[in-house]
Design goal:
The chain has a 7-stranded mixed sheet with strand order 4-3-7-6-1-2-5, with helices on one face. By secondary structure, the protein is of the alpha+beta class. The chain is globular. It has one domain (2-105): At1g16640 B3 domain, CATH 2.40.330. The chain is 15% helix and 34% strand. The protein is built from 2 helices and 7 strands. It has helices at 24-30, 69-77; strands spanning 2-7, 18-21, 37-42, 49-52, 65-67, 90-97, 100-105.
């Protein structure tokens, strides 16, 4: 599924405040409200980490972002962040199985 990088406007080098905006359609198709979290592995990284999906904002009509500092660190490390205003990078989020996902840079 296609996803877009997200930031809360601060662009901190620690990675805090970064995440992924998932469409409502993809959220409803690939995520389960009963999961407390998902496991996300990032392209080029060997270990997955937990991302909280129990926040009401994730299941609301306006926000629906996966937020974690490791996403921000990865975006920065891969020169995808910070980005020009209004031009966040597009990424590919693959639903592996159950609550396991894999994020990669968008293929051209």
């Amino acid at each position: 599924m296609k996803t877009t990088a997200w930031n809360n406007g601060q662009h901190l080098s620690s990675g805090v405040g970064y995440g992924l905006k998932v469409t409502i359609e993809d959220r409803d198709r690939c995520f389960d409200q009963h999961w407390g979290s998902i496991w996300l592995r990032l392209e080029g990284e060997s270990h997955a980490f937990e991302v909280n999906v129990t926040k009401p904002s994730f299941w609301g009509k306006t926000c629906h972002e996966l937020i974690h500092k490791n996403i921000g660190k990865w975006l920065i490390k891969n020169h995808l962040a910070p980005w020009p205003k209004g031009k966040p990078p597009k990424l590919e989020l693959e639903h592996i199985k159950d609550n396991h996902f894999f994020l990669r840079k968008k293929t051209q």
